[in-house]
Amino acid sequence: MNKQQLFENIKRKKSFLCVGLDTDIKKIPEHLLKEEDPIFAFNKAIIDATADLCIAYKPNLAFYESLGVKGWIAFEKTVSYIKKNYSDQFIIADAKRGDIGNTSEMYARSFFDELDLDSVTVAPYMGEDSVKPFLIYPEKWVILLALTSNKGSHDFQLTEDANGERLFEKVLKTSQNWASDEQMMYVVGATQGKMFQDIRKHVPNHFLLVPGVGAQGGSLEEVCKYGMNKMCGLIVNSSRAIIYADKTENFAIAAKAAAKAVQVEMEEQLKAIL
Amino acid sequence: MNKQQLFENIKRKKSFLCVGLDTDIKKIPEHLLKEEDPIFAFNKAIIDATADLCIAYKPNLAFYESLGVKGWIAFEKTVSYIKKNYSDQFIIADAKRGDIGNTSEMYARSFFDELDLDSVTVAPYMGEDSVKPFLIYPEKWVILLALTSNKGSHDFQLTEDANGERLFEKVLKTSQNWASDEQMMYVVGATQGKMFQDIRKHVPNHFLLVPGVGAQGGSLEEVCKYGMNKMCGLIVNSSRAIIYADKTENFAIAAKAAAKAVQVEMEEQLKAIL
């Protein structure tokens, strides 16, 4: 999917919501455990309930890997299901990979060639050759970690160099030599509200993937105020607050309601640019 | 496995070699492709041929993930095979994970609880809470990326802060608040030979996992000169130079010979401390 198509979807759906599929066998409603593939059954119900209200899904690889082979099967089935039934959805493999060139090539092959996903999250620590192998696939995206939503983001990401440039700023600047805003996005946590001003100085036109709204406490209003650009430029993720909105047999209806509440807020915010 | 046990294995085998199982379906000998599980068949032959000469195996997750479910099955079978037949081997999941706390918990559950591996490589970019969930498992290890072997390592890892401290040094220093040398190791690339002096100033007693000898061109002698400590403190990995030493039906014999050549060099180097 290219940038313009993504923006068209945002305008049509009046939403820039990404639903994070952090599906944990220990947290899904009990009645699903009798299904042959409980994880997929849960995801399918969540997807059917929310697809009208979001423009992206973000399966978090850790949750599938933790189940070994079974989890990997559930992940592949989930991706196929989205692609077959909701082909306008942008699919993000939240994998936070990053390795030497020949290894990154294998990851790229896995996510883009085998699974035909739209994007993958990548960690910048190992530099250019850990990122470039992902960029040879047309209309596929690298979403590079810049400023994350967690407490530990302060440990290294805010470290200033001799010129006062913080590490996340160096990541933003350096990585623009590797790819344009047609192939690269950045992860910027919603918990870093006002930092979006600084981020936008470096990357005015890029899309940003924004985790941390919902369970982690970030404010959508603040993110939009400081982070939105004329093509929206934001994909805001919510995982737990939507998919675990209810743990009974009504979980999908509750997820739909939770997604709808966010979409309504987003529609309001989008008025600034549409 | 604890640190003392690891050192005992090194002394007994006169080796600190780790064989990297970067098994690529496109690179293994053609006759194996008729096997039901060619990846596992290859690994099994490599392991049987090299187990006497090494103290660790490092399956690189990317290579298995790129094959989807089949790859994950081959990975799990490989781990089980090592644990059952060569229980003295230290197994490293080369995964380079690192995510917010609740996600890292899932990865830790996957690698330590489900698969019972000894260690996992972790990327430091997201800071403390991305690493800590791996540290609750006794005698399991985090191997944190510090200074990697690739060209891109220069992009961010060498960035100096206002006090002249480079990012990899800050990672070494900060992470020592999270765990001791009984639970933490560091990745330091062999291609950074003389930098081992600087590394050892910060972490004199830690084990270091050293990729980059062999195909990537690092020198074992230089690594030992600047990096060895009184408990050896080095696990030196070689992947391609061993497992792809030959691509005919003799591949396992050639792998054994390649591993033996490295082990002999290591035995020589170990004389300095044994």
TrEMBL record, chains A, B:
Keywords: Decarboxylase, Lyase, Pyrimidine biosynthesis
Orotidine 5'-phosphate decarboxylase domain location: 16-255
EC number: 4.1.1.23
Gene that this polypeptide is encoded by: pyrF
Protein known as: Orotidine 5'-phosphate decarboxylase
Glycosyltransferase in keyword set: no
Taxonomy, superkingdom: Bacteria
UniProt pathway annotation: Pyrimidine metabolism; UMP biosynthesis via de novo pathway; UMP from orotate: step 2/2
InterPro entries: Aldolase_TIM, OMPdecase_type-2, OMPdeCOase_dom, RibuloseP-bd_barrel
One Pfam family here: OMPdecase
Catalytic residue positions: K96 (proton donor)
Alphabetized NCBIfam families for the sequence: pyrF_sub2 (TIGR02127)
Catalyzed chemical reaction(s): orotidine 5'-phosphate + H(+) = UMP + CO2
Protein family according to the UniProt entry: Belongs to the OMP decarboxylase family. Type 2 subfamily.
The protein's enzyme class: lyase
